[in-house]
Amino acid sequence: MRSRLFSVLLPGLLFLETAAHALIVHGDPGPMPDPAAYVGSFSDASGVYLGDLHGDGSHWVITANHVTKAGTFTIGGYTYDVLDGKQVAPGLDLYVFRIDVPVDSPILSLSPMVLASTTALNGTPLVMVGNGGSNQSGLTTWNAAWEAGELPTAYTGYTYTVNGRTFTWGSGESQAVTSEGYNYVVSYFEQEAGSAAGVVGDSGGGMFVNVGGEWQLAAVMVSNGRYEGQPGNVAVFGNLTAGLNVATYRDLILAAIPEPSFGGVAGVAVLLGVLRRKRRA
After folding, report:
1. What would the pLDDT profile of 126-169 be if each residue is shown by its tens digit?
2. Phi, psi torsion values for 56, nearest 5 degrees
3. What SS3 class is residue 276?
């Protein structure tokens, strides 16, 4: 457990760095949103497929650095071998890894994910997607001592148990927060249809925004905020989900994904020039 982060904005909440399992969603989240196609499962958590960012045939995924590392990544019903990976920067809870994608893979139909370059304004709608495992209860209440069903009601939400893996999505609203030197996008769990809370597998999942009709990755889920004394496997309204702000760390993410030695038209032109000179010699 970390120290009390966001204590000024979120009195009574603790900020926990936990490997998460599927999003808890209040009510009907609606049809599957487009960015959900980019989220898969990695070990006991989630990951967001970034695609071939440099056009060199290398396909990358981003997740939280604290999750258990695995040898495969599963997305869209297909499993891909992990080739290599690295932490984005020392102390930063982001990890990128490269996967082996066959030439006939359906994942190739996805265009590269756009990394947000500007932090979304507070209140901007978010789509949150995770791929973990949960068995969500019906709506439950607790009193101030966290006794379920006892009056007076102090908290309302859901219990959950881990049971297989469940691909889930939900909604939220972006709020930019800085804590302990790191920049986050956070979203509260609200009593509105479709509102979502990240819990213990959602780590590494995505928080997406729609900018002018284009979906962008705004944050990578890494933590959640819970009330003092809140039992495990419980998500209640007022909890928060926190993701590292992609706009802040975009340059570091791109720097961690190496460009090819001869990339793009310029690189090809240089290579062809070398070959021509050798033939004339």
Report:
1. 999 997 556 678 999 999 999 999 999 999 999 987 666 678 89
2. -110, 10
3. helix
Nearest CA-CA partner of 236 in 249, 246, 251, 225: 225
Tokens read off for 85: 């990976």
- Please check the confidence at residue 274 and state whether its pLDDT lies above 90: no
**Distance from C-alpha of 219 to C-alpha of 190, rounded to nearest angstrom:** 19
Measure the CA–CA gap between 146 and 250, rounded to whole angstroms.
40
The pTM of the full predicted model, rounded to 2 decimals, is 0.87
pLDDT at 143: 98
For the CA atoms of 69, 74, 80, 84, what is the dihedral angle to 10 degrees? Answer: -20
Tokens read off for 192 = 């509105």
Spatial distance between the Cα atoms of 204 and 202, rounded to a whole number of angstroms: 6
Per-residue model confidence as pLDDT tens digits over 28-69: 899 889 999 999 999 888 999 999 999 999 999 999 999 999
Tell whether the model's pLDDT for residue 278 goes beyond 90: no
Helix, strand, or coil (residue 16): strand
The pLDDT score that the predictor gives to residue 11 is: 47
Pairing relation of β-strands 114-115 and 214-227?
Answer: parallel
Residues, the chain, total?
Answer: 281
Q: Which two tokens stand for residue 15?
A: 């900020």
Collect contacts of 100-108 with beta carbons under 8 A, ≥24 apart: 101/59, 105/78, 105/80, 106/76, 106/78, 107/49, 107/59, 107/75, 107/76, 107/78, 107/80
Asked if the model's pLDDT at residue 265 lies above 50, the reply is no
Compute the distance between CA of residue 79 and CA of residue 214 in angstroms, rounded to an integer: 27
pLDDT for 167: 81
Higher-confidence position of 203 and 14 = 203
Tokens for 241?
Answer: 């989900």
Q: Is 191 helix (H, G, I), strand (E, B) or coil?
A: coil
